[in-house]
Amino acid sequence: MDVRDSARLWPLVGRDVELAAFDSAWTDPRFRGFVIAGPAGVGKTRMAEEWLSRLPSRSVTVSRVTATEAARTVPLGAVAHLIPAGVDLSDPVKGFAAISAALSGRGRAVQHLLFVDDVHLLDSTSTVLLRQLMDAGVIRLVATLRTGRALSDAARALTRGDAVRRVDLGTLDQGNVKLLLESVLGGAIGRRTLHELFTTSQGNALYLRELVLGGLTANTLVNDGQTWQSKERLLTRTPVLTELIAARLDAADPRARPALELLALCGHLPLPDVEAAIPTDVLEDLERLAIIRTRHDGRRAVATLAHPLYAEVLRDELPPSRRRALLLAQAERTARHGLRRHSDALHIASWKLAATGTADAGLLVRAATVARHAHDYQQVVTLLDALPEEHSTSVGLMRGEALRELGQWEKADDVLALTETNAADESQALAATISRAMNLLWTGNRAETALEVIAAARRRTRSPAGRRLLRVNEGVVRVFSGEPSEGLHVLDLELPERIGQDMDIDAWLWGAMAKSISMTAVGRVTEAVAWAERAYALHREFDEHALLSHPAASVPPLALALTEHARIDEALEVGQKGYDDLISARTLGPQAWLALIIARTELMAGRVKSATRWYAESVTTASARRQTKPQRLAFSGMAVCAALSGDLAAADEAAARAKDYPAVEWFPGEDYLGDAWCLAARGDRKGARDLLLEAAGLARFTRHGSSEALLLTDLARLGGAEEAATRLAEIARLSQGKLVDLRTGYACALASQDPGRLLEVAEELGQTGLRLFAGEAAAAAATRWRRSGRSRYAAGAAQQAQHYITSCEGAHTPILALTETASALTPREQEVALLAAAGRASRDIAQALHLSVRTVNNHLQNAYTKLGISNRRELTSALRIATPRA
């Protein structure tokens, strides 16, 4: 089925409480009616349909009534099909008796349920008749009722009373929207796309459905191979949705139109401005109909449209001349108030720019400053591009920073280089230099050039404070370009623990984040957590003064340090909240890196599907900002996840795509993981170990202890435990991190093959949240006990392993692959048998394992004998290894 067809078939999600309420009411002998109330589009009719489908068809007869505005003008028009032919309605008593007899089935033991959709639209005569039938026990009523509309006395009588139950349906929360979307689309939904759809629909099921259909039809909602993603800010309304919203707006008093148009153009306005545009009774009616909302912003009451889609529809209907007149009038009205709020300048400049294409230069700069504080970098560029020329260094710096945050790093470098050259004094030149170096490092991938820019600035800088700033900046660049020890040495010397008068806030924040990253890399993990927490707290405190992006940009170092401290759940919680904050603020810059760190932690925890979604999220956001470095690690991580899930075709594709991007220096060697696990999935554990040893050597050369420890752990899992344990113990002696201690204990237990110790390690790993490692340790214990003939102990260990891996989302590793039968093989026989099962010839196996062909064949023959088989074709099933989906 085409996804556009499946997207029209929406399941019921998040309504268990309401369904239970109906079940309870139905069994109550006093029950006469059930009313489902709520605003348009929340799923009232869908809920009623679900209830009706649950009723026993043999004992319940269902009739339906659809009330409409047209039928409302005719007495009994909506229920005419229920009235038997020839009934004389001029005699109410006889007429009621005839209808009652027809609906009751003339004495048959069948209950009659009447479903009325939009009961608020029934005419009064129909409502009186239905109430009489309910009271007489002839029918039970299920009705939908749209809130926000005045009810007639008859309708109130029909939908109220002790025998009538009512549930009010609200909109869906984000969690249920996610479940609904992934059910309808048949795949994971990207985090940013979920936010866009939820925010735009506000959880209204009908609006959500039409947005999805519109996106699928217009190809603005697409599957990138891993997740469903919307093209940035390109959600598309369907004609149906536009008509629904237009009809809702048309239901308002015509006198409300000027205020609605003004709110559509301006977003939100002081309540007195709205009250000046329309009569009080009209304003009250708009609130009752839930078309506008009022709230308090500090001491000022403001009004907004109740739904963002209302604004879109209203704006589409406005001719340019009307837009211009409304915007200029509101700008003038706000200016008369004296720009009492700092956001007023932004509003006036934006309105004038939209109306006339120009605005006062001073006002534009002031407005851009406000937009920068709000992290709206596109608005910053729009406002500053309207200036006739660059007026100051601060303007150039602001524009360059905004371009960098938008991923336009070539333009950013041009602007910042010019700003640096034209700076009026040393402090302005330093600010431009630091910003340019960050642009070259992060988005331009030109660390060497960044260091050259810093060195040139140091030669012309005279003040000690200025030279210190540049040294801090140099330390940051070195940390993120793969020199953690060198960068940390500089930062230890130059970066104060607190921001002082001689330290720029932005420079200090960059320095603090880099210091935390480097401390994590070299094993000073306790200090790394403290520095990261301090940076995050101060970033939030100084948010409006820092040029650095949203405070959540300080979360990646914190999440990374918490992970290395083995605070796995806390790292994920902090990381995911920070990511959602970045999405809400529409700040793309750090999203790809934070998603990458979250994915890396999820993979450590063994949740391969969750990790895959986060790696895909990293790729999507990195592509949107033209960042190349995160994508190499993200694709490599996706290859690992696919290999662990048994999908070799996807693993190979992801591993190949990873090579299209440059390496990430502050995770050295980790981009080898994809290729290593692809080899392991094919049975070539020797090739995988060789690759991991090479990768670990790279990490060791650059003194990235955390990356080296990660790579060595996988080496241990693939049969190199003795070699890995020795080096891990060396790293652990120099590290404060709890995670490296756990890694070392795990590798040592695998090397010793002591089942008791393996189970102890499994418990430690499981309590920390590293459940895949815990499952592997318990499985290894089971294998060891099975070989020694202690079947009862083996069964207990196997049960413990299963307990851990149930949350690992289908992960399949060589240690877990060993079954009771396969555990009879020696490690070398397992290795040879796995390669043979993967289709490798004896000569190839001999070359890979540095054995003779004769030795390989001897190992294979021993394996055949132990497994009770006679040839290679039977190996896969005998080993009970999941066949890769190639």
Set down the secondary structure blueprint.
Layout: H1 3-6, H2 16-26, E1 33-38, H3 44-53, E2 60-66, H4 69-72, H5 92-104, E3 111-117, H6 124-135, E4 140-146, H7 153-158, E5 164-168, H8 174-185, H9 191-201, H10 205-218, E6 221-223, E7 228-230, H11 239-250, H12 257-266, E8 268-270, H13 271-277, H14 280-288, E9 292-297, E10 300-305, H15 308-317, H16 320-336, H17 342-356, H18 361-373, H19 377-385, H20 393-405, H21 409-422, H22 426-442, H23 447-460, H24 464-480, H25 484-494, H26 505-522, H27 525-541, H28 555-564, H29 568-584, H30 591-605, H31 608-624, H32 629-644, H33 648-658, H34 673-681, H35 685-701, H36 705-733, H37 738-752, H38 755-768, H39 771-787, H40 791-805, H41 814-817, H42 827-837, H43 842-849, H44 853-867, H45 875-879
Parallel strand pairs: 1-4, 1-5, 2-3, 3-4
Antiparallel strand pairs: 6-7, 8-10, 9-10
Helix pairs in contact: 9-10, 11-15, 12-15, 12-16, 16-17, 17-18, 18-19, 19-20, 20-21, 20-22, 21-22, 22-23, 22-24, 23-24, 24-25, 24-26, 25-26, 26-27, 26-28, 27-28, 28-29, 28-30, 29-30, 30-31, 30-32, 31-32, 32-33, 32-34, 33-34, 34-35, 35-36, 36-37, 37-38, 38-39, 39-40, 42-44, 43-44
> What is the averaged pLDDT score?
87
Number of helices: 45
Structural class: mainly alpha
Placed side by side, the strands forming the largest sheet appear as 2-3-4-1-5
User: Which word captures the global form?
Assistant: flat
* Termini gap: 24 Å
Bin the strand percentage: 5-15%
Count of individual beta strands: 10
